[in-house]
Amino acid sequence: MTSSLEARILPPVLATPLHVGAPNMGPWHEFSELAQEIFRRRWLTNRGPLVIELEQKLQTYLEVEHVVLCANGTIALELAAQAAGLSGEVIVPSFTFIASAHALQWQGLKPVFCDINPHTYNLDPEAIEALITPATRAILGVHLQG
Ligand SMILES: Cc1ncc(COP(=O)(O)O)c(C=O)c1O
Fold first, then answer.
1. pLDDT tens-digit readout, 2-33
2. Pair 102, 74: CB distance under 8 Å
3. In this predicted model, what pLDDT tens digit does every residue of 54-91 receive, in sequence order?
4. Which of 6, 35, 123, 136 has the highest count of CB atoms within 10 angstroms of its CB?
5. What are the boundaries of each domain within the chain?
6. Measured in whole angstroms, how far is the alpha carbon of residue 116 from the centre of its chain?
7. How far is the CA of 105 from the centre of ligand 1 (A)?
């Protein structure tokens, strides 16, 4: 006899677990050749040639005037907040990596947490409207799973 709990546990869809945060890594040999070049050059900081090449490729791909690579996502968010000249409140999803809120707070902004849509896991547009006040300066949307 099957208990009600067992009846609710569905069999796995995939043979092996798929980690939702697993990035696309690209071919190892391409990375390894680039990494060897870095070792040969012994140039790890201050706008090396690979940084400049990637910025230019992204600029073309994204069809934008400026691309600035950052050491991590938190710094990128802080730079974006500074560049936009923000002060006051920024609406941010309540379901996101904590650095989304940290970056705002470290720039003197107040993160205002907004509910997400349980189906998309992204900001719920109706919940956003209720949080907009005269102090709201921006909405930081996050597509959490890329
Ligand atoms: C939504 C979101 N914001 C910010 C960050 C922070 O990025 P980093 O760890 O590169 O500083 C992450 C990292 O996972 C993230 O998922």
1. 566 666 788 888 898 888 778 888 999 999 99
2. yes
3. 999 999 999 999 999 999 999 999 999 999 999 999 99
4. 123
5. 45-139
6. 16
7. 14
**Predicted model pTM:** 0.81
Q: Tokens 């798929």, residue? A: 18
Helix (H, G, I), strand (E, B) or coil at 60: helix
CATH number of the domain located at residue range(s) 45-139 in this protein:
3.40.640.10
Strand (E) or helix (H) holding 112: strand 110-114
78: which residues sit within 8 A by CB, 6+ positions away?
A: 103, 106, 107
Does residue 142 have its Cβ closer than 6 Å to ligand 1?
yes
CB 113 within 8 A of CB 92: yes
